């Protein structure tokens, strides 16, 4: 179904969606974008991940949520890797790259036609073996945490 099936002047109804993105150890994901795509209509909703891991979704107007039904979910982070042979990028706070692709992400959520939907997305971190061979000694996840953070 395309948006045109709903008429030229009316968007399908949306329902508030807010939530949190966390790693498997419970620590919040601090940066990125959450995007949902309706499996029925293809309509997409997105929201920026805040420093505490929380987000709210927008489809047509700010914070209006998402259309009801089943959705595929991706979490996209822009990660810059320097092309310097001695540079070993930090993996702290980086999600597994599979979550950035609709064809690879196994994340799914259901948006109910209710006043507010609360969801929690639990993601695996990127593993050090994902890095290319040019990085001979990548930092382990535990060693890459910024100063002042708790374990």
Description:
This protein is mainly β and 151 residues long. Helices cover 0% and strands 28% of the residues. It has strands at residues 16-23, 33-38, 44-48, 54-56, 69-76, 108-111, 116-123. The strands form two sheets. A four-stranded antiparallel β-sheet has the order 3-2-5-6, with no helix packed on it. Strands 4-1-7 form a three-stranded mixed β-sheet, with no helix packed on it. The radius of gyration is 18 Å and the shape is elongated. 21% of the residues are buried. The model is unreliable at 1-7 and 133-151 (pLDDT under 50).
In short:
With 151 residues, the chain is an all-beta fold. The protein contains no helices and seven strands. The N and C termini lie far apart (47 Å).
- Low-pLDDT sequence parts: 1-7, 133-151
Strand content: 25-35%
Classification by helices and strands: mainly beta
| Mean pLDDT across residues | 82
Termini distance? Answer: 47 Å
* Largest beta-sheet characterization: 4 strands, antiparallel
> Number of helix segments?
0
- What percentage of residues falls in helices of 4 or more residues? under 10%
* Radius of gyration computed on alpha carbons: 18 Å
Can you list the strand order of the major beta sheet? Answer: 3-2-5-6
Quick tags:
151 residues, four-stranded antiparallel sheet, elongated, disordered N terminus, three-stranded mixed sheet, mainly beta
Question: What is the topology?
Answer:
Elements: E1 16-23, E2 33-38, E3 44-48, E4 54-56, E5 69-76, E6 108-111, E7 116-123
Parallel strand pairs: 1-7
Antiparallel strand pairs: 1-4, 2-3, 2-5, 5-6
């Amino acid at each position: 179904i395309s948006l045109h099936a709903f008429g030229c002047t009316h968007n399908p109804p949306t329902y508030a969606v807010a939530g949190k993105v966390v790693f498997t150890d419970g620590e919040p994901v601090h940066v990125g974008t959450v995007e949902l795509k309706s499996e029925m209509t293809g309509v997409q909703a997105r929201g920026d991940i805040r420093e505490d891991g929380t987000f709210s979704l927008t489809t047509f107007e700010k914070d209006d949520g998402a259309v009801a039904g089943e959705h595929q979910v991706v979490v996209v982070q822009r990660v810059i890797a320097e092309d310097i042979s001695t540079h070993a990028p930090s993996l702290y706070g980086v999600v597994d790259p599979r979550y950035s692709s609709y064809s690879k992400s196994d994340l799914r959520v259901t948006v109910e036609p209710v006043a507010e939907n609360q969801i929690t997305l639990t993601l695996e971190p990127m593993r050090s073996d994902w890095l290319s061979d040019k990085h001979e000694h990548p930092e382990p996840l535990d060693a890459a945490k910024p100063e002042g953070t708790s374990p």
